[in-house]
Amino acid sequence: MNLDDLKSVIPAIDTRSLVDKVEMNLIDFFIQKELSPGDLIPKELELANVMGVSRTVIRESLNRLKTMGLIESIKHKGTVIKSPDLSGILQKSMIPNILDHSTLKDIFEMRLVIEVGMADLVVERATDREIEELSGIVKNEISPSDDILFDVEYEISFHGKLYEITENETLKGFQQLLLPVFSYVYSSDLINKHPINKRYVSHKELVEILRKRDADQFRLAMRKHLENHFARLFSK
Q1: Beta-carbon neighbour count of residue 115 at 10 Å?
Q2: Collapsing DSSP states into helix, strand and coil, what is residue 190?
Q3: pLDDT of residue 193
Q4: Per-residue pLDDT, 118
Q5: Mean pLDDT value of segment 198-222
Q6: In contact, 64 and 152? CB cutoff 8 Å
Q7: Using one digit for the tens of pLDDT, what is the confidence trace for 105-135?
Q8: What are 147-199's pLDDT values in tens digits?
Q9: DSSP 8-state code for residue 151
Q10: Are 23 and 61 contacting, i.e. CB atoms less than 8 angstroms apart?
């Protein structure tokens, strides 16, 4: 009998720990019951009796779910479903110097893609006052001519304001999450800092284009602005 035949008659052993299994069963239970943020979940003792495990196992599984941001304990009420803070959860593991280079580059690329994609939100929601704030941020910046990497301080301040303008809380959370990675990659040898012989759209030019309130034009300008980074990521 060959290996495939053996696999068809002998099931694989489930090597997950009891806590892992309880955790997944609880998540399945939340989904099946269509529980929403604020809904109470059964008490520890009830869960232990129903699932046939000790309260210690239940407690450890619930603690994992709390760490994931899926549930929270409220005094005098009990444990309830919570809407997870996605960026907050990722922030706990987003430590640049312990992420491998491939992951760091992936995250850096994600930042570039997000900023091109959010151009429509920026054009739609930017107030005249906010456009003037952007102008003020970069008024003293020396506009890059051909092959200069943008100053990291201007990059963080200017692009941070763009995220704020979107009024999208999840996007703003991701921006805070990506900042340490951006700074790390920018100052490391992960991107090619040698001249690429291209002319990029500067921050000052972005402000002037934003004043025109043309989403397509601003999106294209953002892409050309960020080409400063794309070209260096993809160059040999």
Answers
A1: 21
A2: coil
A3: 56
A4: 93
A5: 90
A6: no
A7: 788 788 888 999 999 999 999 999 999 999 9
A8: 455 566 777 889 999 999 999 988 888 887 777 777 777 667 666 555 555 66
A9: P
A10: yes
Residue the block writes with tokens 């069963």:
25
- Which residue, 58, 92, 108, is CA-closest to 229? 108
Q: Could you tell me how many residues make up the chain?
A: 236
pTM assigned to the model: 0.66
- 66, 72 Cβ separation under 8 angstroms: yes
Joined together, the tokens standing for residue 109 give 């690329």
43 touches 26 (CB < 8 A): no
Between CA 10 and CA 12 the distance in angstroms is: 7
**Three-state DSSP state, 79:** strand
For residue 76, what pLDDT is reported?
86
Tokens of 117: 């994609």
Structural domains in the chain, sorted by start: 3-84 (1.10.10.10), 89-234 (1.20.120.530)
User: Amino acid identity of 105?
Assistant: K
Per-residue confidence band for 235, with pLDDT thresholds at 50, 70 and 90:
low
Q: What is the pLDDT of residues 11-34, one digit of tens each?
A: 554 546 889 999 999 999 999 999
- 198: phi > 0 → left, psi -120 to 50 → alpha, else beta; which? beta
The label of the residue with tokens 């051909």 reads: 146
Q: Which of 165, 144, 151, 150 is CA-nearest to residue 210?
A: 165
Q: How far is the CA of 212 from the CAs of 156, 164, 206, 207, 208, in angstroms?
A: 23, 20, 10, 9, 7
CA distances from 71 to 57, 87, 135, 145 (A): 16, 16, 43, 51
Helix and strand element counts for the chain (H, E): 12, 2
